[in-house]
Amino acid sequence: MKLEIDVITIFPEFFEKPIQFGPIKRARDAGVLEIKLLNLREFAPTPKEVDDYPFGGGSGMILKPEPIKKAIDSVKKEGGTVVLLSPQGVTFNQKLARRLAEESQIILICGRYKGVDERIMKYVDMELSIGDYVLSGGESAALVVIDAVSRLLPGALGSEDSAETDSFEWGILDAPYYTRPRVFDGMEVPEVLLSGDHARIERWRRKEALRRTLKKRPDLLDKALLDKKDLELLEEIKKEEGL
Ligand code: 9D3
Questions:
Q1: Is CATH 1.10.10.410 what the domain over 167-241 is classified as, yes or no?
Q2: pLDDT for the residue numbered 146
């Protein structure tokens, strides 16, 4: 199945370079992803008429509803999902990325600082935020969504990594990694990684992934997919860490 992502924005150029690299490029080259950049100004009677002053007063401009509706109508197919990137949205996460990767069309509307006319909400299926900080607009958030969703499409990832082995797919953090040199600034690579004992290495990696998660993101462990072995490893870690 192929995914079409349509981006409605006043800054289409913002996306041009980032969509030419990595998994996004691979998914596009594999034909499983098509990205269309729609310049909102082209859907206004004149380019200057994309935004206007807020009724009731206040500083800043608000994106007008008609150009947004026209842009949606120009691309929306039956079953297409309209997503507004906004600070009021539900926080984007891996589960939502997986859900969006199953769609056939996602229309991303990028708001700007101050906002969009509330009446476009009638055409919006989902409102997404990427976290609790203030951005200047929805464009960087839309790129985050495009990245997270694209890498889940078949053919987006090289053979080296795969979406299923991403430890975050299991709900925990990844283990630490090391590369050459074997000694850097007096610090050695853990002996187990040089042992060639793959069973021991896998057990160590899982354990260190769990240790990191317990130390840095204990909240993740509540929802993580852990088996009996993981729970045993966690008990070992808690003893070692004096917890
Ligand atoms: C004066 C405007 N702000 C009042 C505190 C509200 C506001 C509106 C629009 C703040 C930022 C923005 C622009 N941000 C987005 O469009 C946005 C966003 C974000 O700011 N943080 C996290 N996720 C997202 S998704 C879209």
A1: no
A2: 98
CA 195 to chain centre: 36
Q: What residues contact 34, with CB distance under 8 A and at least 6 apart?
A: 2, 3, 4, 5, 28
Q: Assess contact for 116 and 63: CB atoms under 8 A.
A: yes
**pTM confidence score:** 0.96
Residue 54 near ligand 1, beta carbon < 6 Å: no
Domain ranges of the chain: 3-150, 167-241
| Structure confidence at residue 158 (pLDDT) | 82
Q: Does domain 3-150 have CATH number 3.90.1300.10?
A: no
Task: Write out residues in the chain with pLDDT < 50, as ranges.
Answer: none
Helix (H/G/I), strand (E/B), else coil: 17: coil
- Mutate which of 114, 134, 136 to test ligand 1's pocket (most atoms within 8 Å of Cβ)? 134
For residues 146 and 85, the answer to whether their CB atoms sit within 8 Å is no
Q: How far is the CA of 133 from the centre of ligand 1 (A)?
A: 8
| Helices 228-240, 198-216: inter-axial angle, 10-degree rounding | 70
Q: What Å distances lie between residue 201 and 90, 110, 129, 229, CA to CA?
A: 38, 45, 38, 15
Tokens matching residue 96: 């939502």
Q: Which residues are CB-neighbours of 225 under 8 A, at least 6 positions away? A: 170, 171
Scanning the chain, the segments in alpha helix (DSSP H) are 13-16, 22-29, 65-75, 94-101, 139-150, 198-216, 218-221, 228-240
Q: Calculate how far, in angstroms, residue 240's C-alpha sits from the geometric centre of ligand 1.
A: 43
The answer to whether 3-150 and 167-241 have equal CATH topology is no
